[in-house]
Write a structure and sequence with these properties.
The chain has 11 helices and 14 strands. The chain is α/β, with parallel strands linked by helices. The N and C termini lie far apart (52 Å). InterPro entries: Aah/TibC-like, Glyco_trans_9, LPS_LOS_Heptosyltrfase.
Length: 362
């Protein structure tokens, strides 16, 4: 019998006086199985959940998944054959088998995961833990309102993150991109939860010129905005994963993670000519309590250079390669000034535009 906590197709055999008196081989068919996801995270769970679905399909079990009540509405309607519950409601004694999905930073003996997640990818680690095909697959989403939120062409952005190394640290970068998108005729909707985030003397503000759709809104509403957007521009954060799940093209700006860490996108932006991918370097243990974590260059002029040296020109060129962006330019030859004037008169903005942001160099 294995002491490992990830999926192992074990067999138990008990013998007495050289005679087998009991043998049981793992078989989850038509049995209750629990897969537990951590709470407090969006992107991780969006990436992990499809592997729970693969497990259910492979073993034909009666699957229960435990997750944050804030995320259940995203999936429940799309997976009626799966039971959704919260950690507080779980009764572990009813399950034939139980598996826990997570990022196990200090699992040096590989007890909870067969391979270190930093080697196989943030989402694919769930496939390895559950013993299913690790090929990535976006989850299905169930939205109570799937109608288009506004008639005009628009782009969603999300600029906030849980730690400074995840931000795009090029001073004024977001302001320039918002202006670029508006000049192309798009309305730019910021769908972050918070309009301002940071610690101490370092704070990150919603970019000037975008429309403010921040706040404690349901994730299904965020998904609705994303599903109908021409594309999404953001970071290696939860809303990028949610955009991926909606099928919307994702422009992802990230330097602290390697490309293998997230889902595949042809619009991934990383500068390989500078320091990068510290998150996936097993020599550096991520510190969840250090907002300014930069393991190789903290306190030096090179701190956060992984994204600080990603220029707006680079981001613009990637955006120009998106087919929907090119198509829009062909379909709408009207000047930017005429377009903005028509939008202002005919379609008042649902959210107020932000005043000039204050940017602190880090």
């Amino acid at each position: 019998m294995s002491a490992k906590k990830y999926f192992v197709p074990f067999e138990i055999e008990i013998s007495k006086n050289g005679k087998t008196v009991m043998r049981h081989r793992y078989d989850a068919r038509d049995k209750d199985v629990l897969i537990m996801f951590p709470v407090g995270t969006l992107g991780d769970l969006v990436g992990w959940f499809p592997y729970a679905v693969k497990f259910q399909e492979k073993h034909q079990c009666r699957l229960t998944v435990s997750m944050s009540p804030l995320l259940i509405p995203l999936f429940k309607g799309a997976y009626p054959h799966i039971e959704f519950t919260t950690p507080e409601q779980v009764k572990v004694e009813r399950y034939y088998a139980t598996y826990r999905i997570g990022l196990f930073f200090d699992d040096h003996e590989c007890v909870f995961q067969p391979s270190d997640f930093r080697h196989v990818g943030l989402h694919r680690t769930a496939g390895h833990i559950l013993g299913v095909d690790p090929t990535e697959m976006p989850p299905l989403l169930s939205l109570p309102d799937d109608t288009r939120p506004i008639q005009e062409k628009y782009v969603c952005i999300a600029v906030q993150a849980s730690t400074q190394c995840k931000y795009w640290n090029y001073p004024g970068g977001w302001k320039e991109i918002v202006q670029f998108l508006k000049e192309a005729g798009y309305r730019v909707i910021c769908i972050d939860q918070k309009s301002t985030h940071g610690v101490g003397t370092t704070w990150n503000h919603i970019p000037w010129g975008c429309e403010d759709a921040t706040g404690d809104r349901p994730l299904t509403e965020r998904a609705r905005w994303l599903r109908h957007a021409d594309f999404f521009v953001g970071l290696s954060s939860g809303l990028a994963w949610l955009a991926w799940a909606t099928g919307t093209p994702v422009v992802m700006i990230s330097g602290f993670t390697h490309e293998s860490n997230e889902f595949a996108t042809p619009y991934r932006i990383i500068n390989h000519h500078t320091c990068n991918s510290c998150w996936n370097d097993v020599r550096h243990r991520f510190d969840h309590f250090d907002f300014m974590w930069c393991p190789r260059h903290k306190g030096t002029a090179r701190q956060f250079e992984c994204t600080g040296l990603i220029t707006p020109t680079y981001v613009k060129n990637v955006i120009r390669s998106i087919p929907t962006f090119v198509e829009r330019g062909r379909l709408h030859p009207t000047s930017v000034m005429q377009r903005e004037s028509a939008d202002t008169n005919a379609h008042p903005a649902p959210y107020h535009e932000k005043e000039e942001e204050t940017v602190q160099a880090v």
